[in-house]
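User: I'm writing a short report section on ligand binding and want a predicted complex to refer to. Could you take this sequence and zinc ion and write out the structure as tokens? A short remark afterwards would be nice.
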Amino acid sequence: MEFSYYNPTSIQFGKGQIKSIVNFIDKEQKVLVVYGGGSIKKNGVYDQVKTALEGYTWLEFSGVEPNPTVETLNKAVEVIKTEKIDFVLAVGGGSVIDGCKYLVAAGLYDGDAWDFLDGSASVEKALPLGAILTLPATGSESNMAAVVSRKQTDEKRFFFSPLVFPKFAVLDSSVMSTLDDRQLANGLVDAFVHTCEQYVTYPTTSLVNDGYAQTLLKGLVILANTWEDRNTPVWQENLMHIANQALNGLIGSGVPQDWATHMIGHELTAFYGIDHARSLAVVQPQLFRVMLEDKKEKIALMGETVFGISNDNEAVIKAIESIYEKVGISTNLNDYEIDDKVVENVTKALEAHGMTALGENANITLEKSAQILKMAMK
Ligand code: NZQ
Ligand code: ZN
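Assistant: Sure. The structure tokens for the complex follow:
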């Protein structure tokens, strides 16, 4: 086993932690507070940020949409450059935080910052970033990934840079009180799939990675099975904790990973606007069926340790599907607004983005991706 693990984000977990942001932002820094469509004005988060930033010079930029686009974000880049912003504070879910990762890099870049997304440039400098998380799902609050879309070309791409790790992340689960069922379910399923992408590959000898991934999966199964408690503080803080741990880099260190479900899912979102987690719920079970030969040992292990199912991999895949369905997420692609070009559109986009040999064994070809999508149309 060989790996480097680095995660500099300070986690401020618990009720009332928003005020702690002053410990991480210098008074001399000019701050840009960035948020989405306004949910933070309904749950008191905006007011808490305003109170915390008393005495600071700060501006705000709102309107970052789910699956953030460069078309919107580039307007904030202008603000950062003309107003000479020193610090960006993201207040929202994965979309706002990812959007802000783009902003902190783009704000110090002279060219078109889509270069980071299409891989033609890597981030060499970035402004400091802080995050106040309002939707547990992506883990973006303490990782170095950002997923950004370009409406003009129906593309959804990603970049990584250690320079865009937030300096701090506030995880106060009391801000989840205004989340609707759709977003809570999305968060649960996204975290489940993140854990699987770093666990359901081929067997390894790492007791730590397997054990911790199983703990996270078991926790998510408990949360799905106690869905009726979803408005309680304990349920919500557990989801916030698990979703954070699922994608902060830890469980993936030193083990094979398979992000194929995400790569196929991103193309579905780019074309059809399907919520991120829903795109995953549609793709992942079929991907497990198509790639069963590669993944059978880990699916069996997951069956035994997470679901209490022995010697029946199809039953394990069905158990995963029923978790998604239990929280109200359909695993049938036909239940979403697609058209008869879906397989063609997604596979062409995968090809254009170099996603022709996905998976831990680099053997998820375009043909296999097409097969997965066809099977997902139940
Ligand atoms: O915009 P506002 O008004 O804030 O409303 C949002 C948005 O409409 C709402 N919301 C957020 N917190 C709320 C709330 N509504 C009520 N109360 C609250 N407390 O929820 C809606 C969805 O928000 P969004 O940020 O889009 O959701 P999520 O956190 O699931 O983020 C999804 C994005 O993250 C990317 C996805 O591809 C997608 O673009 N991902 C990022 C990753 C990363 N950086 O590591 C990994 C993931 O796999 C994923 O790809
Ligand atoms: Zn995800």
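A remark for your report: The mean pLDDT is 98. The chain has two domains: 10-174, 181-376.
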